[in-house]
Write a structure and sequence with these properties.
Blueprint lengths: L6 H12 L5 H8 L3 H13 L19 E9 L4 H13 L3 E6 L6 E7 L2 H12 L5 E8 L13
Antiparallel strand pairs: 1-3, 1-4, 2-3
Helix pairs in contact: 2-3
Length: 154
Amino acid sequence: MNGTLDPTDIKILNLLQQDARLEIRQIAGLVHKSASPVHQRIRKLQEQGFIKGYVAVLDRVKIGMPLLAIVQVRLSTHTSEALQAFEKQAARLNEVQLCLHLSGVNDFILHVAVRHTLAYHDFLMQHICNQPNVAGVQTCFVLKECKNHGPYVL
C-alpha cells in the first residue's frame, strides 16, 4: 500500500466501521483472504493513518451525562495564537466531546456532554466565557440524537 486503497482495503475498512471488534479471521473470511495478509493490511492501514484508533461508543444517558449541548463560539481576534489557545483549552476539557474549527460567523462548534443544565451553566461560566478571546457564545440543546457516528462511505 502506498497511501491508496484497493477494493480489499475498502472492504476491511467498511467492516471495521461496522464492528471494530471483529476478529482477524472473521474479517479474512468476509473479504475472502487468509488471516495473515488481512492482519498485515490492517496494520498498514493503521500505520498510514487510515485507521486513527478504536473506541467504545458509550450511552451518554446510562453513564449519567444525558444533556448534550451544541455550543457555537465566536472569538474576538483570529490570530493563529488565539485560535490555537482556544483549541488547546477545549481539548483539555472532559465535557467537550467534539471541537470543530469553522469558517463563517462562528469560529468553533463544541459538543459538550454534561449531567444537567446547572452543570452546563457552570461549565460555560468557568471554562468558556472566562476565556479572554471569547466574544460570543450561543448554545442549542440536543433534544434527540437521530444519527450518531455514521460510517464513511468508501
